User: What shape does this take?
Amino acid sequence: MHEGPVVVGWLLAALCGGTGLYCLHRARAGPGPVARRPAALEGAMGLGMAVMAVPGAGTAIPGQTYVLAFGALAVWAIVLRTRPVHRAHHAVEALAMVWMAAAMPGHAGAAGHGAAHGAGGGLPVPTGMLIAYFALYVLVSGARIPAVAQVAQMAGSPAPAVAGAGAAGGGSTPPGYGGEPSPAVAVACRTALSLGMLVMLVSM
Assistant: This one.
């Protein structure tokens, strides 16, 4: 849900949609299920965010649809067999989308959001906490990209390579990245989606 300028909404939709499509490509080309499943979840999340960011999407699609869709993604994130840090981040991401969907006009939870805004004359506490979380995540994760790329290069898996190219070229995957052949790209994708989430939260 984006309530700012229309051009920002379309740029946000392009960012999230492009990232989501690339994540789906990573999911298709990944070396194994350990790498493909998180990428598939990120792809679904990115495309869902893109749809919600499109100007007018809040009235064209019922808020309940988003709540159900992102609620399912939250469950998927929780049961996903991946690194606990990534699992928790994806769950927070999906639940943040559920929170925003509940604030859409016409949804039963919108009144609660409005009351939360009116009671203290500021942001609801959950919104403020989510903004702080994603702002910190973007800063920390974005700063990690060069270091992760350097580790990947030292391990023989060039960071710009398309997912799966490292395995095809005989390069090894850096340890601790769940079989992801392009760990810097994976971090960049998560950073881009978190940035999109941050913009959507701020513009609620």
The chain is about 75% helix and 0% strand. The chain has a mean pLDDT of 79. Residues 24 and 43 are 5 Å apart (CA to CA).
